[in-house]
């Protein structure tokens, strides 16, 4: 964007002439294929004295309600192309950008969701991870790069869902010799589930930041504070286990360690942010077919887009605070001080450079895997998690899987398995489950080893964590 607020846009006509506009047409939902028409209309309107903010407002109204411009002397033709005489979604034209998938036997519905995302007018490229399964908007395991826009449901409902591991320089045999003590520390210092909160509130610097810039954080501030340091439901967990490091990592020598690992996010507040801004994006993009409504985006050159971005980043800091408090409380109860720590988001959007171009990369259920970037990819309550080092593969937009990935829905898992099935596999793997639902049985997930094998060109395994004492929502 230039200093005067205009966007430089290279037109797609045969002359390839440059035209400055005070708005980004694709951010308003106008398909890129119509850019030559947009530029021609803008020239005519500017010749009649319509410039700057007035020109932008006119095109915003056109994108939102093309029918009302059917008889406009300049914009009438463009309105017809945008569906002025058709039903919502008729103007949406899919030109799929390049994308690539890892893994075999991927869910066709998840594949289609990624393809839908790659057909958006703001899309640049995409990738699908081997743990992929269906989600809202983008699939879980979906990675999508776009230009100067953010898709709320491309980030996900649980904004900044996060992994954290603390490693302790004590004997891992403590999971056997002092298992009851380790279990009590988790039981007494954690809180799980929808609406869960501590009787005595915790505190963290993030709660003293500005939460008033957006109506959702402002409304949810008290609830977020009440839930500070707690974990969600579903596949969120806190667990003790044994970490094997066969080769020294930066800050952690080779060896076998006791480790504490957690998986949780931004709680109900993150979900409210996602729902509010996704609904707003849908209203701003009536041209999207109904089936693609969850892929609606917000331009980052708009107030709405900048507001969502700030809320997303706040939820990232809030999620990190939750994990920090969980680890401090559980380890502190036992008088343990971590020797090493590692953590990462997997529901977030980042501003990055790929192929020499600045893009917004959405990783929904995908782990950042830039070269030399460390992260955590968990398995199930009985299967290993892996500390990984990213290989920076540009084909995946420097991303990797975020876990094993479901092979069946929660409803199907509850219908197919009994408590005895879960108890059998827990005993077989020597795992103590303090609490957890049948919808999280290991059999409802892919084999994490196969997932890791499918992405050997994305990450290098540097450590293996075996869970031994696990707590999830009841």
Automatic annotation (TrEMBL):
EC supergroup of this enzyme: ligase
Protein species of origin: Desulfomicrobium norvegicum (strain DSM 1741 / NCIMB 8310)
Enzyme Commission number: 6.5.1.8
Catalysed conversion reaction: a 3'-end 3'-phospho-ribonucleotide-RNA + a 5'-end dephospho-ribonucleoside-RNA + GTP = a ribonucleotidyl-ribonucleotide-RNA + GMP + diphosphate
GO MF annotations in UniProt: DNA ligase activity; GTP binding; manganese ion binding; RNA ligase (GTP) activity
Name used for this protein in its record: 3'-phosphate/5'-hydroxy nucleic acid ligase
Cofactor: Mn(2+)
Signal peptide coordinates: none
GO BP: any one term: RNA processing
Active site, renumbered: 402
Binding-site residues, Mn(2+) 1: 158, 236
């Amino acid at each position: 964007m230039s200093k005067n607020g205009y966007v430089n846009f290279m037109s797609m006509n045969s002359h390839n002439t440059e035209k400055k506009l005070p708005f980004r047409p694709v951010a308003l939902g106008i398909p890129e294929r119509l850019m030559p028409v947009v530029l021609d209309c803008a020239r005519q309107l500017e010749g009649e004295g319509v410039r700057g903010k007035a020109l932008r407002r006119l095109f915003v109204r056109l994108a939102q309600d093309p029918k009302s411009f059917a008889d406009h002397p300049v914009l009438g033709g463009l309105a017809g192309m945008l569906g002025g005489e058709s039903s919502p979604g008729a103007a949406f034209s899919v030109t799929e950008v390049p994308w690539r998938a890892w893994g075999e036997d991927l869910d066709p519905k998840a594949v289609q969701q990624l393809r839908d995302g790659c057909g958006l007018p703001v899309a640049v490229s995409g990738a699908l991870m081997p743990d992929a399964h269906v989600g809202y908007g983008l699939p879980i395991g979906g990675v999508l790069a776009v230009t100067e826009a953010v898709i709320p449901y491309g980030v996900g409902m649980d904004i900044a869902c996060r992994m954290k591991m603390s490693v302790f320089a004590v004997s891992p045999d403590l999971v056997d010799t002092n298992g009851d003590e380790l279990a009590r520390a988790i039981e007494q210092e954690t809180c799980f589930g929808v609406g869960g909160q501590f009787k005595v509130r915790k505190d963290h610097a993030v709660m003293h930041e500005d939460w008033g810039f957006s109506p959702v954080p402002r409304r949810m501030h008290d609830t977020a504070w009440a839930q500070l340091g707690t974990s969600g439901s579903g596949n969120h967990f806190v667990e003790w286990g044994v970490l094997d490091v066969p080769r020294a990592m930066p800050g952690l020598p080779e060896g076998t360690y006791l480790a504490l690992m957690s998986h949780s996010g931004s709680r109900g507040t993150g979900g409210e942010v996602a729902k509010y801004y996704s609904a707003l994006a849908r209203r701003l993009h009536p041209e999207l077919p109904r089936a693609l409504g969850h892929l609606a985006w917000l331009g980052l050159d708009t107030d709405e887009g900048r507001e969502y971005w700030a809320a997303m980043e706040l939820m990232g800091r809030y999620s990190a605070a939750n994990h920090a408090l969980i680890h401090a409380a559980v380890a502190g109860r036992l008088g343990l001080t971590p020797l090493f720590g590692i953590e990462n988001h997997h529901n977030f959007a980042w501003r990055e450079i790929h192929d020499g171009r600045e893009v917004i990369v959405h990783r929904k259920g995908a782990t950042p895997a830039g070269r030399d970037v460390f992260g955590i990819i968990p398995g199930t309550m009985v299967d290993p998690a892996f500390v990984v080092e990213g290989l920076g593969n540009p084909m995946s937009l420097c991303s990797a899987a975020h876990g094993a990935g479901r092979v069946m829905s929660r409803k199907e898992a509850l219908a197919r398995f009994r408590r005895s099935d879960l108890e059998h596999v827990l005993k077989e793997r020597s795992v103590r489950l303090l609490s957890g639902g049948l919808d999280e049985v290991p059999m409802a997930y892919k084999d994490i080893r196969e997932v890791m094998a499918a992405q050997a060109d994305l990450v290098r395994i540097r450590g293996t964590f075996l869970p031994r004492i696990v707590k999830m929502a009841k």
